[in-house]
Fold this protein.
Amino acid sequence: MKQVKRTFLSIAFTSIAAAASAQEPIPDHAALRDRFYFTLGAFFPRTTTSAQLDSSRLGVGASIDFENALDMQSAKTVPLASGRMRFGERWRVEAEWFELNRNGDKQIDRNIQWGDVVFPVNTRVLSKFDFSDLRISGGYSFFRTKDKELGVGFGFHVAAYDVSLSSNATGGESQNVTAPLPVGSIYGQFALTERWAVSGRMDRFSLSYGKFDGSLTALGLDLMYQPFRNVGFGLGSRSLYISMDAQQNDRTLKFRQTFQGPVLYMNASF
């Protein structure tokens, strides 16, 4: 009987050891391993934009749908760039940037007040809406293994606006605003294999401070393919939702914007 038990235990231990040795190795992907990680690619957003410019002299301005009322592009391809640097095992800083510049030219079908200028019906209005977003943040990965990472961060979305409406008959008015919007964030990265990985991120801001009042939500999802040691490729999506009132002198610029679309990029890491 004892011999049978010893034989059974020997077989069991041998089976466990064989199963352990047969397990797949833990994936080692560059997105979770390398200290420096940079991307350069393209963003293909569809955009909705409404804005109004109030003035102390004429009061509340018209709320304008820039895509429909002013014939501005709702879809455009723009450059996208990002970078990340790790400090030790758990700390990281990163940045991501894109810029979207658009123009419109349309004969309007209603009166529009923009700041101190009123554009009468049937006026041909030239419009400009330039926007850029620079996200800068620092993060701490409270859970980190060779193939998984979860963390929280804090940083800023620096949203810059340059908006103008003009016509030959009435002249025009422009407004420039740069809003550093503080955000809290959560992020995660997971290596599926040595070559494939996924990542996700959400930023959120909602408060009033100084001359700014509003909210921001940003979402990012990526599928990353690393066929070479230092070079890879990515496919993902970006969404950005901004609702903001910004006061400047005797003007208040109010805007509501959404950006949603896929991204394609190449990455380099080391």
The chain has one domain: 28-269. The longest strand covers residues 124-144. Residues 28-269 form a domain with the Lipocalin fold (CATH 2.40.128.90). DSSP finds three helices and 14 strands in the chain.
